[in-house]
Amino acid sequence: MTERRPAKRSLGQNFLVDEKLQRKIVGALGAPPSAEVLEIGPGRGALTRHLAGAVRRLLLVELDDDLAHDLAERYAGRTDVAIVHADVLDVDLAGLSEDPAELLVVGNIPYNITTPIVFRLLERPRPRQIVLMVQDDVANRIVGPVGTKAYGALSVGVRTVAEVERLFKVGRGAFRPVPGVDSAVIRIRPFRPERLSLEHEQALRRLVRAAFQWRRKQLRKILRDHPDLAYPREVAEAAATAAAIDLDERPERVTPEQFVTLATALP
Fold first, then answer.
1. How many structural domains are present in the chain?
2. H-type alpha helices, 42-113
């Protein structure tokens, strides 16, 4: 029955039909039998069918009414599979999990809300590992080298709290309906232990957001004149010296590690 459900453009649905790729994505997650796994947007169950029964507990978060109903029917009576009919952006993920710090996350996520989902997953307490299918362009932005056009707030936001790898590209022909873009699978492993306090993380996010809003300006002007920062010249210079950063640089030339040290040096 689920195979006949049409995709809904309003929810950004494109179903992965290539079974070899389904297995490759699940393999990239590397979930042991003892694992608790959260799957985002299981849809028709392309990845679900390879996970159910292979892990200790499987949590499925599905927004679509029809698909959530079909999944509930398919896995009715299974104590190791739980279906959560909700928007993943509204769900208390830590509340769903028995041990959020050990949770593994996988999903072919809607491309129109990729960035909000990624940052939602990287809220504390962070999962142990996240494997996501995303738009190829987004994957390139997340892993983009410093100094390139791809490098920006998304790159820094992810890579200051986690290690990220671009695993492999997925052509558009692997989906039905066929999307207008290629995809890629990325793996995100949050740092353990946390590198920053929650207070410093919030300061870092504010700094990075402001910096890349003015990405063509020098750090000196951004720190002094951006309304979200507005640091006195001597404060900015002292922090830059402590972080070994040249204030004549533009944000795209500053590494994630340098953003971390600058954020912690600023008051």
1. 2
2. 48-51, 65-74, 93-96
Q: What are the pLDDT digits (tens) for 212-258?
A: 999 999 999 999 999 999 999 999 999 999 989 999 999 999 999 99
What's the domain range around 89? 2-190
121 contacts 93 by C-beta, under 8 angstroms: yes
Last residue of one domain, picked from the residues 167, 190, 213: 190
Q: Go through the chain and tell me how many residues it has.
A: 267
- Clarify whether residues 186 and 202 are in a common domain: no
Tokens describing residue 71? 């999944």
Please name every residue paired with 132 in a beta bridge, in sequence order, or none if there are none.
Answer: 107, 186
Task: Please state the pTM of the whole predicted model.
Answer: 0.92
Distance spanning both ends of the chain, measured CA to CA: 58
Residues 166 and 72 in one domain: yes
Count the Cβ atoms, other than its own, within 10 Å of residue 121: 23
